[in-house]
Amino acid sequence: MFVGIKGRQVKPIFTIHAGEYLVASHLEENFKGLEIWLPTRDTGIDLLVTNPKSSSQNSICAVSLQVKFSKDFLGNKGGGKNTPSSINSKIKAGGWWTFKYDKIEKSQADLWVLVLYRFSHRDFDFVIIEPEQLLERYKKLGHTSGIIQSYVWVTENGQCWETRGLGKAEQEAIADGSFEAPDRDFSQFLNNWQPLEKRIGL
Question: pTM (2 decimals)?
């Protein structure tokens, strides 16, 4: 069973994954009055969020979300096998995704939400970004087709970085807060729900 808006229980026709549940729960808790819908078939959209207060008889104020979940592959404070503890101690969480270039390019969703969940601390972070913006970032990093391996780190000081392909010195710079690389910097998208708020009329 899935607990919907205002405690209503809705039984979906399929099981939602952890990322969808975390996003839906976060929106219900922090944006009162929104309605969250599950699709009846796979269209590349995981959640549809509507705002009844901003909708009218002729227009529905809605935003569609594609949700991508990753457990914390760095583990519990130094659990990353290939990352020194001096770096891991300053990294809050690290997510690992495998994307297909054409899936991002053809995405029908208004926003993509990358979910990083730390099982050891039972907390999470969200990266909220338009698919066009996400694709443009990957293009600038040399990904123009095929499979994209994405490693995203969230630091203890609230920064967010794409770290795939970085060496130890660059990783250390991320950990100590001195790293500079605009195309890899996802901090502006970290836990920033303003794009959703704007689209949905909050």
Answer: 0.87
